[in-house]
Amino acid sequence: VDAHLAPYIRENGEVNGIIAVLHDVTDIRRLEKMRSDFVANVSHELKTPITSLKGFAETLLDGAMEDEELCRDFLTIIYKESDRLHRLIKDILYLSSIEHHGIPLSIEKVNVTEAVLSTAQTIKEGAAKKNLKLILPEKKDIWIEGEKDRIQQIVLNLLSNAIAYTPEGGEISVSIKEEDKAVKFIISDTGIGIAQKELPRIFERFYRVEKARSRSSGGTGLGLAIVKHLVDSHNGKIEVKSVEGVGTTFIVSLPKKQNNVI
Ligand code: ADP
C-alpha cells in the first residue's frame, strides 16, 4: 500500500487533522513484475536460437564446410532455427501489441464457417505432410460480430498446435456449434494429449509441457497466450479437455453480439 499524508487545514488556518490517502498498489506491482518477467523470458527465449545459430555458423567457418553432407545438415539447422526466431519475434510483437495497447476490436459481421474453412486451407498442406485426416465443418451461414482476422488467428493457432502435437496418421476435426447467444468452435485432435496438472498453465506465455519436444516442433510457447487474449478481446471463453495419449479438444465460445463496443 502507498500512503500519502497531508494536513487538513480549515479556512481559518486551523489544522484540523491529517488526511491519509491510501493506494492499493498490489495490482500495479503485479503488473510491473509481469512486465519484468516478460522481458527476462523474452531475452532468454531469444538467446537460445541465437547461440545455436552462432555455434553452427562458427563450426562451418572453422572447416566443417569442406564436408558437403555436414555442411547441408548444419545449414538446415541454421535455416530452421532462424525461421523459428522469425516466428518468435513476430509472436512477441503481436502479443505485446494486443496486451499493452489493448487494441479495440474492429467489429464486423463474420461468417464463421467461411473464416474457419479459409484458415483450414492454409494448413492443409501441413496436415497432408503428416498424413493427418482433416475433418472440416459443412458450409453453412452462421454470423457473429467480431474481428475476422483475430478469429482466424485463434483457429490457426489451435489448428497448428493440433497438427504439431498429433503423430502421423492421426485425425483433426473442426466443428462449429451454433447456440442461442454464442457460437462454439470445437477443435479436436488424436494427438499426444496434455497431462491434467499441466492444463491450467498452457495459456501462460512461453509455457511448454515438454520443452525439448515442443521446441523441435518449431513452437514458440506463445500460440496459446495469443489465443487467450484474442478470445478475451471478444468477451469469449476457452476450455480445454485432454487425455494423455488419446487427444485434446479446445472449445472456444464467442458471443454472437458484442455489446460494449468502444
Ligand atoms: P507452442 O508454440 O510450444 O506450441 P503454445 O502456447 O501454442 O506453444 O502451446 C503451449 C504448450 O501446450 C505446447 O508447448 C504444448 O506442450 C501444449 N499443447 C498445445 N496444444 C496442444 C495439443 N493440441 N496437443 C498437445 N499439447 C498441446
Automatic annotation (TrEMBL):
Q: Which organism is it from?
A: Lederbergia citrisecunda
Q: Where is the Histidine kinase domain?
A: 41-258
Where in the cell is the protein located?
Answer: Cell membrane
Q: Where on the tree of life does the source sit, at the highest rank? A: Bacteria
- The protein's name: histidine kinase
